[in-house]
């Protein structure tokens, strides 16, 4: 597994505002959207492209276009939905599959309640979106889902990660070179109830309200 931690003052600034408990949902949603756009620059560094001839007003030249089959974006419901628009804006030809996972707050195990992914992801490049990588249980479940269906290149885009969660993902995927995690910030630790510290609280609740 390859880990890329973004290192950019604009990203740090926006993450700081996200952390602020007084930031209201509309601002929180806007910042998540902006952060995805910034992280996507790194996350899509290895997006597959093919040569593509283009006619400019002056001549014919060779450029590139996103390869076929198109990449597939998988937001993990709920909180990952807040990252979807930002990602599809940059990759408009991508397809979107949905995975609904809810962490049992007692056991901290991820429970799958929705799955709308193509059965066959053979050879597909997948971008998994989830703002929070805490114990890693949810992300590991998502990575395993798409790998079992044949995906060959999985990039996870997260905002905050706990060191414990990164370690768990690393253990789960081993030294696979085609799984990577791009994250805005690696936080200090998990607390005794599995929340990221200093973190930003419950990302789903902050985006969409307490349910
Ligand atoms: O790394 P983990 O320990 O698995 O925790 C992280 C997961 O917890 C949150 O989702 P949650 O279960 O709160 O669902 P929600 O998005 O519907 O709020 C978050 O969005 C991740 O999916
Ligand atoms: O800190 C955390 C941990 C899991 N899920 C969240 O939304 N926040
Ligand atoms: Mg939540």
TrEMBL record:
Pathway: Pyrimidine metabolism; UMP biosynthesis via salvage pathway; UMP from uracil: step 1/1. It is an enzyme of class 2 (transferase). 5-phospho-alpha-D-ribose 1-diphosphate binds at residues 78, 103, 130-138, 202. Pfam families: UPRTase. Keywords: Allosteric enzyme, Glycosyltransferase, GTP-binding, Magnesium, Nucleotide-binding, Transferase. Its cofactor is Mg(2+). Its EC number is 2.4.2.9. Residues 5-209 form the Phosphoribosyltransferase domain. Binds 1 Mg(2+) ion per subunit. The magnesium is bound as Mg-PRPP. GO terms for molecular function: GTP binding; magnesium ion binding; uracil phosphoribosyltransferase activity. One of its GO terms (biological process) is uracil salvage. Allosterically activated by GTP. The keyword Glycosyltransferase applies. SUPFAM superfamilies: PRTase-like (SSF53271). Uracil binds at residues 196, 201-203. GO terms for cellular component: cytoplasm. It catalyses: UMP + diphosphate = 5-phospho-alpha-D-ribose 1-diphosphate + uracil. Belongs to the UPRTase family. Catalyzes the conversion of uracil and 5-phospho-alpha-D-ribose 1-diphosphate (PRPP) to UMP and diphosphate. NCBIfam families: PRK00129.1, upp. This is Uracil phosphoribosyltransferase.
């Amino acid at each position: 597994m390859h880990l890329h931690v973004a290192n950019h003052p604009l990203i740090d600034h926006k993450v700081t505002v996200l952390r602020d408990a007084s930031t209201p949902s509309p601002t929180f949603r806007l910042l998540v959207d902006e952060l995805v756009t910034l992280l996507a620059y790194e996350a899509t560094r290895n997006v597959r492209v093919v040569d593509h001839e283009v006619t400019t007003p002056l001549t014919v030249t060779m450029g590139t276009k996103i390869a076929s089959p198109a990449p597939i974006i998988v937001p993990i419901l709920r909180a990952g939905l807040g990252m979807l628009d930002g990602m599809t804006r940059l990759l408009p030809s991508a397809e979107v599959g949905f995975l609904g996972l809810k962490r049992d707050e007692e056991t901290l195990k991820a429970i799958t309640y929705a799955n709308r992914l193509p059965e066959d992801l053979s050879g597909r490049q997948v971008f998994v979106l989830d703002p929070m990588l805490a114990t890693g249980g949810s992300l590991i479940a998502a990575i395993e889902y798409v790998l079992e269906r044949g995906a060959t290149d999985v990039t996870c885009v997260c905002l905050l990660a706990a060191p414990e969660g990164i370690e768990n993902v690393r253990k789960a995927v081993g030294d696979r070179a085609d799984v990577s995690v791009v994250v805005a910030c690696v936080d200090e630790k998990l607390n005794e109830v599995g929340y990221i510290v200093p973190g930003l609280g419950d990302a789903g609740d902050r985006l969409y309200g307490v349910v």
